[in-house]
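Hi everyone,

Forwarding the result from last night's run.
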Amino acid sequence: MTHPLLDPVIVAAVERAASAHRGRPWTTQGFTDLDSRAAHPSGILHGSPFSVFAKLTSSAAGREQFAAELLGLDLITRLAEVRTPAPVATAVVSTGAGWLLLSEAVPERVGAARTRDDFSAIGHTLAALHLVTAGEFGLADFDGYFGPFFQDNRPVPSNRWADFYAERRVRPMLRLAVDSGNLSSDLAELAERRIDRLPDLCGPEPQPSLLHGDAQQNNFVCTTGGAVVIDAAPYFGHPEIDLALIDYFEPTSPAVFDAYREIRPIDDGFDDRRELWRAFSYLAVIAEDGQNPFGRQFVARLADALGGSAR
């Protein structure tokens, strides 16, 4: 089956954008499929003097999703001065087959090719984000998306972290998981009881820090020049959220946390709260993919995090 990004309409749109970005004609000379590492059809269209990373969505909210991602990357670049991919032309491009998000491809090391220095660079980059602080939790400037789901960044009146986490992160994802039919009523009730206890479970009140928002380790591209941030959904929140998501899908090197501690401390209670901070992301996976084997494993993980049963 031909990859969606190789549709002639899509290729033509990428070539037009890359040509405008370069200021002279640009044509693709090959393709690398990256679907295994992304929630959208994704890949690299190779060319010279740069290649183009592209991802495609046919969602009705596709333009809003990609525009929010672009705004988020621009925000963290300006505030934290971390590296993000260079947008290609306007970056968000309409085609007859959906919306594209385009950036200059970044040469990277992946999987087993990643070195200890690569993981250290991820830790340093994450700490650099968290050094940027604000006076309130959330982000008044714009909302975002966590995967395919709308992310409400509005601050809460109390400006307490437990309230923000409950009302803007856990409860919206819980409603989506329940509505999907993939979450039992017993687990939903257990989650509600845990939400009610959040003021007692969240630990010391943190300073609102700039978060990546979806900081699983593959959303940091490892290059010879350090880590490059991708797929961000930023807002100001508890830095432990990002730390909990780094090894959310798969174990990571201790070098991430060692390097982070060179710049910022990690509270001794973090390990006890790690699963609490993952609850909203477990619910997101359950809502999106809970009928499939991959998603069903997160029902069990959520049950463990809540201290209940997946049945």
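The mean pLDDT is 95.

Cheers,
N.
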